């Protein structure tokens, strides 16, 4: 006969706080990774755009990745005279591919 192993999880304040904090922590961690990846992918001439890429918690379940360089939008989307050189959208796609790995240690 095989031995039976029991696992007991006791609900306590630490577990409750961790479970409540997990969604926010997950979004923040993903936003940090997207921001770092966008900085890595940003077209580099003076470094102004790269330094201006950041994120914030605009609403409860959303994180906003943005640049304040004044021209980051033109780089990302292009203009009539300049081809797009996207860096935020590819960063988001790259992080989406690694999301499970990034979030693994939250569980």
Structural overview:
It contains 4 helices and 2 strands, in the order ααββαα. Strand 1 (53-59) and strand 2 form a beta hairpin. It is α+β, with helices and mostly antiparallel strands and 107 residues long.
Report the oligomer. single chain
Helices, by number, come to 4
- Using the alpha-carbon principal axes, give the shape: elongated
Q: List unreliable stretches of 5+ residues.
A: none
What is the percentage of strand-forming residues? Answer: 5-15%
* Helical coverage, percent range: 40-55%
The average pLDDT score comes to 89
Over the alpha carbons, how many angstroms does the gyration radius reach? 20 Å
Distance between the termini: 33 Å
Per DSSP E runs of 2 or more residues, the count of β-strands stands at 2
Count of structural domains: 1
Largest sheet: 2 strands, antiparallel
The string of secondary-structure elements, in order, is HHEEHH
Strand order of the largest sheet: 1-2
Given helix and strand content, the structural type is: alpha+beta
Strand and helix map with partners:
Layout lengths: L12 H29 L6 H5 E7 L2 E6 L4 H6 L10 H16 L4
Helix pairs in contact: 1-4
Quickly list its features:
alpha+beta; two-stranded antiparallel sheet; 107 residues
Q: Can I get a quick summary?
A:
The protein has helices spanning 13-41, 48-52, 72-77, 88-103, and strands at residues 53-59, 62-67. By secondary structure, it is of the alpha+beta class.
